[in-house]
Amino acid sequence: MPPTLRPHFSAQGLRHGARAALTAFPGFIMFALAFGTAAAQKGLSLGETLGLSAFVYAGASQMVGLEIWQQVWTPTTILTIMTVTAVVNARMIMLGATLQPWLKHEPLPRTALNLFLLTEAGWLIGTRYHNEGGRDVGMLLGCALILWLVWLAATFAGFFAGALVPEPKRFGLDLVMPIFFGVMLVPLWKGAKPALPWIVAGLVSLIVHALVPGYLFIIAGALAGVIAGMLIE
Amino acid sequence: MSTFGTIIASPWGSVIAIAAMTLVTFLCRIAGVVVMSRVRITPRIERGLRALPGSIILATILPVVIDNGWPAMIALAAAITVMALTRIDIVGLLAGLGTLAVIRALG
Q: Are residues B93 and B61 part of one domain?
C-alpha cells in the first residue's frame, strides 16, 4: 500500500460521500415509507415514529419493534424489545469490525457519530470506495449523513401519506434492497477464489432461513463466510 | 409498584423503549470497532474480514431472492450484468428494478 493511502478527513470527502449515497436512495425511501406507514397504522404518534427512525435508525429492527410495540410498557416488555433489537442488529458488530483499521486515527467524537449513523448500505458504499483506494473518512460520514436525512424525510412522508404511494410491487420496489445489495457485489468481485466464502455464506443462510424463523439467517450466513475466509488459505 | 415501574407505565414508557432500542443498537454499531482495536489483526483475521462484505450480501439476499422466485432471480442477474458492464451502481439498480417490473407486467 503506497504511503499516500493514509486515512484522512476532508470536506471534499463529505461532498463525495453525499453524492455516492444516491444509489441507496430508492431502497431507503421505500423502506422508510413502509415503516412510517406501518407505524401510523399501528397507532404510534409522529414523535414516536420519528424518534425510532432518528435514533434507532435500523430498518429491520424498527419493523420488528412495531410488532412488539406496547400502549402501556412494563419492565418486561422493555427488556423484550431491547433483546429483540439487539438480536436483529447484532450483524452490525461485523460491519464495525471491518471499518476499524480505517477509523483508528479518527477523533473519538467523530467516530462515535460515524458509527451512530452506520448502516449496511452506507457501509457497502464506503467499502467499495475503500477497496478502490479511497481513505477519506469524510466520504463515509457524508454518505451516512445524507442517508439519515433521507430516512427521516421518508419516514415523515410515510406516516402521513403512506396510503397514497402506488402499489410498490408493480415497479419491483419491494425488492429494491436485495437488488441494490446484488449490484454492490460486483465491485467486490476479485476472482473465483476470494468468492468461495461468499458461497458458504449463501448456503448457510439458506439453510438457517429454512429452519429458523426471523432474521437469524443473515448473521449466521455472514459468520460462516468469515470463518470460511479464515480457513481458506 | 416501584417508581421505575410507574414511570414506564406512563407515556414516558415509549421514550424509554426508544432509548433502550437506541442504546443496544449503538452498542452493536460500536462493538466491532471496540473489539478490533484490542485484537491484533493477524493475516488469518484479515482474510476473514475481507470475506465479510460479499458474505453479508449473499447471506442477506439469497433467501429473499429465492423466496421471490424466478422473476427476482432474472432481475438480480440483469442488475449484476448491467453493473458489471457499466460499473455505475444506479444504472445497475434501475436495470434490475426495470426488469422485475416488466416481467411482472407481462406475467
A: yes
User: Which residues in chain A show pLDDT less than 70?
Assistant: 1-4
Is B97 domain-assigned? yes
Could you give the C-alpha distances from A207 to A204, A219, A220, B22, B25, in angstroms and in order? Answer: 5, 13, 10, 31, 26
pTM (predicted TM-score): 0.90
Quick check: helix, strand or coil at residue A10?
Answer: coil
CA-based nearest residue to A196, from B86, B1, B54, B81: B54
- Tell me if B47 is assigned to some domain: no
A203: cell is: 448456503
Judging contacts by C-beta atoms under 8 Å, the chain B residues touching residue A21 are: none
Give residue B27's domain range. Answer: 1-39
DSSP codes of every residue in A198-219: HHHHHHHHHHHHHHS-SSHHHH
> Min CA distance, A155 vs chain B (Å)?
16
Chain B interface, mutation test: which of A49, A64, A127, A186, most B Cβ atoms within 10 Å? A186
In the chain, the amino acid numbered A14 is L
- Tell me, yes or no, whether B56 and B105 share the same domain: yes
Question: What would the pLDDT profile of B60-103 be if each residue is shown by its tens digit?
Answer: 999 999 999 999 999 999 999 999 999 999 999 999 999 999 99
